[in-house]
Every structure is written in C-alpha cells, then in structure tokens.
Amino acid sequence: MKLFVDSADHRHWQLPPGCPRIAGATTNPTLVHRAGLPVSLPTYQRLVGQAADAGLGVLMLQLPRADVQEAHAWMDVLQKQSADAGVQLTIKLPCHSGWAPLMAAVRARELSLLITGVANPVQLLWSGQQGAHYVAPYLGRLEAAGRDVWALVRACVAMQVQGTDLMAASIASADVLTRLIAAGAAAATLKAELIARLATDPVTEAAMVQFAQDVQDSQSAVGPG
Fold this sequence. Notes:
Strand order of the largest sheet: 1-2-3-4-5-6-7-8
CATH superfamily: Aldolase class I
C-alpha cells in the first residue's frame, strides 16, 4: 500500500524515524485554509516547490472551482512547474457531474486524476468512466453517516483491476488502516500525527522492557566470567 500524508503544511511531510516512507502528499482547499494559506495559484506553486525540496514523488492538489478556463490557467503553470521539479502532479476533483468538464481537461493533459468524495457504487462506476486514476471515499464521514464502509471498500478494490485505484481517506485508527491493507487497498492518506503515533506501540514497548529485564536477569544469574 502507498501511504500519503494529508496536509498542506510542508512541515508535516517529514515524519519521525520508524514511519514508513510516504509516497507523497494530498491537499484540498480545506487543508490549505487550515494551514493558514490562501487557496490561490501562488500557494499551489509554493507547495510544488516544497514537495520537491522534501523529496516527495507525488503531490495531489485539488482545484478550487468548477471553472474550466481558470483550471486550464492553473494547470498550465502547475504542470510545467511540477515536471521541471520532478514531482508527479495529481489533480483532485469532487465526485460531481458539474466537474465533468474539468475531468475531461485533466484527461486531455494526461495528468493523473483523483476523484474525491466518492460515497456510493454509482459514483464509483461513474468515476471510473471519467478516467480516474484514484477514487477517494471519506471513510470516517461515511461511517458517521451510517454507511456500510467495508462494502464500498471491497467494491473499490475490485475496481483496481480496471486501473482505478482506491485512495482511502478520513482514516482515524490503526484498525481501519489494518483492514485496508488486508483488503488490498492501493493507497491511503492519513494525518501526519496518526502515522507518527503508530510508529510506536505500547505492546512493542512492553516487550522491549521485558527483553531488557531478561537480559539483565540472565547475566546476573550466570555471574562474572
């Protein structure tokens, strides 16, 4: 499984020792706003530069409006900059028919497309037909709405053989991540704090304490020499 950090704050893209290597970072207008940044082309340009500086292979940026003319203007700049920087650019768009013209524009540029907010099987099938490389259901939101999250996950995994990979989002626990790995999800995006927290575990720590105590006790029993 590929792991992505869900943040527009470049300081979150460097994780502590013990964390798996991340494939890249994902953002959206809400994350940009929460990072204290304006949702603007200069902000996105800065993020591309920061991704290159951080050595990220992929940066996923969500366009702010269903405005084809604006989208082309932004992608003109971002596509060239990301190519020059050696960062693979993925464009994120909401799962809604009003954004279909932008999806066609992304396809025409041969950029990677992520359709986000997929919440049911009809949306999943439609997203695949729009040429999505990734679909991103918000698992936490769906669970809170009383949906059968794991049925949708299994459907997304089944779609992976057709070239539309699952990018599971809104993950809040180790148990959910474990089930996604077991289900065969291609990718997941998590908050940096959760990834860092899972780099250590009380069960592991307790075992290490036991090992150290047993080493000490065994050496004391044998005695010097």
